[in-house]
Design brief:
The chain is mainly beta. It has a single domain (18-99), classed as Sandwich (Immunoglobulin-like), CATH 2.60.40. Helices cover 10% and strands 42% of the residues. The strands form two sheets. Strands 3-9-8-5-6 form a five-stranded mixed β-sheet, with no helix packed on it. It has a four-stranded mixed β-sheet with strand order 2-1-4-7, with no helix packed on it. Residues 1-16 have low confidence and may be disordered. Bound molecules: copper (II) ion (CU). Copper (II) ion binds at residues 51, 87, 89-90, 93.
C-alpha cells in the first residue's frame, strides 16, 4: 500500500466515517460495530435473496421494507447504548451496534 493510500484510509475512518456492514451468507459482516450517536450505518445486502431487518428497543424501533439483493438500508442510531439489529427472515442473524 502506498503512503497516499494509507493516508486516505486514515481519513476515511476518522470522525465522519461512513459505516458499512454487509449481509452475506445469512450473516452480518462484521457482526459487531461501534458508532457515535447520530452516525448513519449502511447495511448492504450481498446475498442473492431478501433480508428484512429490524431493531426493537426503548430508544429505537425500526423495520425495513423487504431488502432486495444489492440494496442498502441506512439506519441512524439516535441514542447511546447497545442495539441488536436482526432479520425477520433469518432469525439467527444478529448485528450488535454499540453507540457511544
Ligand atoms: Cu435475512
Amino acid at each position: 500500500m502506498s503512503a497516499a493510500a494509507v493516508l486516505a484510509f486514515g481519513i476515511a475512518h476518522g470522525a465522519d466515517a461512513a459505516h458499512t456492514v454487509t449481509q452475506q451468507g445469512r450473516a452480518f459482516h462484521p457482526g459487531e460495530v461501534t458508532l457515535d450517536a447520530g452516525d448513519a450505518l449502511t447495511i448492504h445486502n450481498r446475498d442473492e435473496f431478501i433480508h428484512q431487518i429490524y431493531v426493537k428497543s426503548d430508544s429505537l424501533n425500526f423495520d425495513s421494507d423487504e431488502q432486495q439483493p444489492g440494496q442498502d438500508v441506512v439506519l441512524k442510531f439516535p441514542a447511546v447504548g447497545t442495539f441488536a439489529v436482526r432479520c425477520h427472515i433469518h432469525p439467527k442473524m444478529l448485528l450488535t451496534v454499540h453507540v457511544k
